[in-house]
Structures are given as C-alpha cells and as structure tokens.
Request: fold
Amino acid sequence: MARLEVTRVGNGIVPPISFTLQGGEILCLSGPSGSGKSQLLRMLADLIPHDGQMTLDGCSSEAMPPHDWRRHVGFLSAETAWWADTVRDHMPPDAETRFDDLGLPLRLLDSDPALASTGERQRLALLRMGPPPIMLLDEPTSALDPGATRLVEAYLHRLRDEGTGILVVSHDAAQRARLATRQMELGA
Amino acid sequence: MIHPVDMALAAVMVLVCGGLSVWLSLRLHGALAVAALRMIVQLVLVGLILRFLMGEEAGWLTLPVMLVMLAAATREVGARQSRRLRGIWHIGIAFLSIGASALPVALAGLFVVTRGLDLTDARHVVPLLGIILGSTMNTASIALNHLCGAVYRDRLVIETRLALGQTRRQALADLQRQAVHAGMIPVLNQMAGAGLITLPGIMSGQVLAGMDPLHAAGYQILLMLLLATAGVAGAVLAVRLTLGRLMDARDRLQIDRLH
Reply:
C-alpha cells in the first residue's frame, strides 16, 4: 500500500504542514474558507510551487517526473473541467464498470460532458481519476443530493478497503464522521 | 509610370466614397481620409528610401533597414494582444520567433531570385523581407492572441489534464494546434483563393507593370510558398516559446505570467 509523507509543505499563504497519509485510510481535512485547503491539495499534487518535501513510498516528488507523480497522487478539483467531445474520451478503459456504483447511467458515456448535470459531472470526474494509489479530493460531494452523496461515500469506503489512501476536504462534520479514519483541521 | 492625372482620378473615386459616407451617415469618411493620406505618405516615403538605398553608395544601409523592419514587426505582434506575457517576454519571443522564421526564409527567397546572397541588394532584399515579415507578423500575432486567450480561459482544463497525469505535451497539444491553425488561416486562405477568387497583389502589380502573366505567376507561387513556410515556422516558434514560459520546470501552469 502506498504511503505519502508530507514534511513542512506550504507556501506564502498556507503555513508549513507535516503529516502522513497511508494507503487504506481516509484522512478528512476541514477548516474555514480561505484557510488554504484547496491550495494544500494542489501543492500535494505538485500543481503549484511549494516549499517542503513530499515522498511517495520513500521516493521524493522531485525525483519523479511531474506527470508520474500526479498519476500516483491524483487530485480532483472542486470544479470539474472537460475538453473532449464525449465523456468516454475522458475516461480510463475500465471506468464504465464503476458507473453503476455511483448511480450514473451508461448512456452518459457517449454524450457531451456539457449535457450532464453538475452532480453527474462531479461523479464522472471522480471515476475519471482511475483511481490512483493516493487520491486528493476537494469537496467531492458539494454538488450532490443526499442519495448520490451516500453512493460516493460508499465508493470511497470501497477504494479505502482496496488499499487507496484518500485525503478528502469536507465542510460537513457529519460526512467527516462517516468517512474519516483520521481528521485534520487547517487554520485552527 | 503612372501619370499624376491618373492618380488624381483614383483619388477622386475615393473622394466620391467619402461623399457617400457623409450622405449615408456611415462615419467612414474621416477614417478613410486619414488612412488614404497615411498610405500615400508612407508609400511615397518608402519609394524614396528604396530609391536612395538602391543607389551605388547606400547599399550598406540595407542591413540597418532590415533591423528596423524587424523591430517594427516585433512591436506590432504585441500591440493588439488582449492577453500577453508579462514583462519583456512577449517582445523577446515575438522578436525571436519572427526573426528566426522570416529572415532565413527571406534569405532563401533572395537566393532563389538572385542566385546570390548580397545583403546590400536593396532592390530585392527590402521588398522580399517586407512581404515575408508582414505575413509572419500577422501569423504569429493571431496565433499568440489565440493561445494566450485560450490558456487563460482554459486554465482549469490544463490543470485538470496535468492533475490526471498527462504530460505537458499531452495537456497542451490541443491549445498548441488550435493556436497555430488560427495563425495560419490568413495564409491558407490566401493560397486557397489565389487565382480563383483574387489575383494576388504581387502578381496583379507585375501584370499591370507589363510582365508576362506566366512569369508573374511564377513569382507569386514562389512568394506564397515562402510565406507559408515562414508562417508555419513563426507561429510554431511563437506558440512553443510562449507555452514554455507559461509552464515551469515541474510542468506547473504559471498563469500569473500572463496579463
């Protein structure tokens, strides 16, 4: 199982933070708006410049090509973005086997992502990730109704049981209680 | 040589257009008058400068004139961008991409036309460089305008593609292709329409000046091929250098380098 070690990672806005995320656990991150939760996730995915050190199974992020790091430490933004004509064009090969788990109809596969609802796009974006060994999820259920939220939570529990390490940003204390193996608060 | 009376006749036709603009409240007459006067002054000046440069003593001045032309083209590339790289980067990239594409192609053209590379030969160097620089400037300018706008608008798409583990090349391929295509549209249109929809400028001028149409067509074909080559090179260079500046060594989008 993968192990992400974060040592004094921060930038001018987010103060340095250190923690470990182990495969098979869900770490829930909370904190007031503007405390830098999304920025921290972007730093962990090496999408914005940062200080400090990150290693995956002992291998430093700087020793790996950036795309390789991001294939292992995947980041899902709160806002989804799409570029190809159909949903299928964005998806990894086996994604359709998981459509049902998230309550997504298979007909979406060959449709234009712009035609899917916001909640459908949020779940599609989650499936688009793969999943990688470490997942960084920025409010992955913000656009979902309670039923779809529970499906996503069950999906994340299953990935955790399969050995994925998951860091989730959530403003919902009840959701954190349902999901978290551990919790962490920024700006506290 | 066109007689001043003939020229006056052409000017009268533009004056009639101006009158039409006043009559129909098109508010075009002011702009038309300024553009026409500016064009006349510029072309007469260029004619005088060229005549001077072609003199026995002044050939050495051709090189500085080439540099002035390149500098002017560089300035124009950045002049009408809605977004561009901050600092001196957009000027540097415009200079490098236009210079590195238009100059070698113009030299190749000079060699084909004169069987030599005499840089003091203003009669050939200045018109050749002028037409190639103008076209390349246009191509690079449109490509960069398209690219910088698209990078800013699609920054979340770029970040998402990188976050999914795509390489810089994969994440930027669409933007690069679309920007180069956009830049090449004028040159491609010009080539596709040549002879069918319009008689290109050079060819028309030479036919009017009494050259055999087939010879004139030969010159035009050569020029179009040179323009296409310089255009592709200029657009690709400008787009790639700009994208290089917009990404850091860890393939992170540096959107604050645009403004």
Chain B has nine helices and no strands. Chain B has two domains: 1-53, 59-257. The mean pLDDT of chain B is 92.
